[in-house]
Amino acid sequence: MSRLIYKEFRQLLPIGWLWIAVILLSYFALGLTSRFDEETFSGWCEAYCDPGTSAFAAVFTILFSLVTAWSLFPREHDESTIDFLRALPVSRPVIYLAKVFSAWLLLCLVNLFSYGLDTVMLSSNPESIGGRFYPQVWSTFLWRDCVFAFVILSHGVVLSWFRTTGFVIYAIYLLLLMIFESQFGSAGLWSVFRILSNEYDGSVLIVDRAAIVVHVLVAIVMLFIGYRLWNRTESSHTGGKVSSRGGKLLQGFFVLAGFSLLAIALVYRVGVGTGDVKGGEFVVSATDHYRFVYNAADTVSVDFVQAHAEQDLEKLGELLGVTSLPKIRVDLTASSEHAAGIAKWKKIQMDMTSFSESISQRRVLSHETTHVLQSVESDRALSRYFSATRFFIEGMAQYTSFIVVPEQSRRASNWEIAAVAWDRQNIRFDDLIDDSAFGSRFDPELYYSLGDLWTVALVDTCGKAVLGDFLRAAGRKEARKDMSASRFWRDTFQHIGCELEQVNANWRKQMKAVLETVEPSAFPTFDNIVVTRDAAKGIVRIEARVNIEDSQDSETASTLPDRYLIRVASDTQLTSSVDPVSRGRLTNVDGGQGAESRVVFEVPGNQVPRTRFRYQIGFAPYTDSRYFYAEWQSGSAP
Fold this sequence. Notes:
- This protein is an alpha+beta fold.
- 54% of the residues lie in helices and 14% in strands.
- The radius of gyration is 30 Å and the shape is globular.
- The model is unreliable at 126-131, 265-280, 551-557 and 572-577 (pLDDT under 50).
């Protein structure tokens, strides 16, 4: 039987090579616009890792499996080569199982090849999510995709007996499933897409075992039905049905169209956001160093940003001592609830709806352009030491963007938020250079304003040229690549002739100076916190008393902030680095000794699935300012 499997596998190899070529084509297109050594685990996952089910993510596997299934039996019967196999000294069930197994083996090997390429790509970036890689998630995706391929293959074996009619029926079935998935969230247990449903316990992927068991059993039954159908079907030479020339052309058309659509979709997904894809509602324009792609509806705002782009880039180049400015692609069609912009090597994505003012959009472009120059000038050294340098990466970009595009009121409120957090939460330089620990203890958004103030102290201490000098010193060829965080900072400062201790001392002085300008009523504290779970309403209610330092009179209390949020630590650490938030309302109650202000939050119960949970209370100290978050606290919601 092993020889028969080998023979069948060799016959299917052209399909395997074709799919491998499609995979390599997608990586080639990605390589034209991105650097593999900056890819992250979350970027690799994208929608495929998100909780729930992504029907679109299953389409490519379904197409691959169906094309392979169509190549097993129809061609053998049309060309009468099945007669040769039946003449061999092996039973018909053995022939059938050998053909099915060889096809499934091919599907699994192509999946393994694809996942193997992903592993090589991710391993080239040691700082993927702060150095995190999730082997359990990776391996679970691999074996689950193989199971999914087996299920679809069994469907294809049966449907191929009906030839083109079977293909059309299955296409309608999948289309209806996708409609139900998009309209109602789930088409139920009998939906084949349920096999790819994602749930997480922390960063551990949990598969839908019930769906897998049900569909594997159905697949086995389908294989039995397929055997009965194909075993009773004679070849065209011995009297079986002969496919017409039109039928063969139609079958070839479906195969070719399937591969072509997949290749186009892969290239399109890479191209969108880089300026490579034209047409539709997208507009492409260019300056000397930028290439913009944007929605036609944003033309007015983009014209303003583009009119200043080259001048702002030149200022950035002067601040950092850049001798050769790079060419940069800018995608202004991105949409994000959490980030105004993202920079990746020489490519920038921006959400034009993040700020209503064009001046802020212009500053975001300067901020993200600084990230591009950081990568180029340091030869990606900062990304190699991402955990140790993240605060400086964001802080320097914040500093340069406010220098090039001043927004003093916004910057001043950010500084006050940073100073209060620094004072109340006892944030020190050693905290800044440990990204993973910082994120678990403080608000990661503080990196921007804390880093901005630290950069101000750096420039005041070591001179204006220090920013570019630091980048180039970090990326010098003779620099070691495996230093600890503190060793990296001391080594780089020694090379540029600056004292790290003096910079930190000046930074602390600046923090204290900013702290003296803070209005106490704008930054209340919270105590007397009560947590209750309302199972009937499906919510967890969190109430806290609002206090103002050094003042309790009603006149001062009236200036309390009126916008409050609570952030609950997400159990799904893999799929999202942004924890869910809920809004709160400010109320006045009788506290026994007079009225007191309390803030009430109602958090959806599914965001607090366990008894113990962690949360941060936040508020906006000023109109249009970003939120200030208190320290992480632990709560209990029985």
